[in-house]
Design brief:
Layout: H1 2-23, E1 37-38, H2 41-59, E2 63-66, E3 70-73, E4 82-92, E5 95-104, H3 107-110, H4 113-128
Antiparallel strand pairs: 1-5, 2-3, 3-4, 4-5
Helix pairs in contact: 2-4
Length: 137
């Protein structure tokens, strides 16, 4: 009987250690990829349109506000911990940077979700602009 209790106690302690390790921040930063940059009107429209679909998909929340240079999802509520904003910033010479910020309402439960969400945003928006770029040889 004591052996069973000792084994059960050890299992509970090990489960607690595993849970603690899972919630810790990763030791190495996550590569979120290059921030999207567009250089023509059509390319910028396509990339901004993609941003309007991918940002709500990442956060699980609808867009609360959107115009030609800014969008934001509704604030994180209940079971949905993520909130996001994206901006289209002029770089000069007709180029724009489309950058996003993804935050977690409860940092202890999100782990690397904001970084992975930003990587998905950057990849998706960059891919939307590929059709407007010259083909490399």
């Amino acid at each position: 009987m004591r052996l069973i209790l000792a084994l059960a106690g050890s299992a509970i302690i090990l489960m607690g250690c595993a849970t603690t390790q899972r919630n810790k921040a990763p030791s190495e930063p996550i590569d979120v990829g290059p921030t999207p940059v567009c250089s023509s009107t059509d390319e910028c429209q396509a990339m901004w349109a993609k941003a309007t679909t991918v940002l709500p998909m990442i956060t699980g929340m609808r867009l609360a506000m959107m115009n030609d240079i800014y969008m934001e999802t509704y604030p994180a509520i209940r079971g949905v911990p993520l909130h996001a904003k994206a901006t289209k910033n002029p770089l000069g010479n007709g180029k724009y940077e489309i950058s996003a910020t993804i935050t977690c309402r409860h940092s202890g439960v999100c782990g690397d979700l904001p970084e992975n969400g930003l990587r998905l945003f950057n990849t998706s928006v960059n891919n939307a602009g590929l059709a407007f770029r010259p083909i490399s040889k």
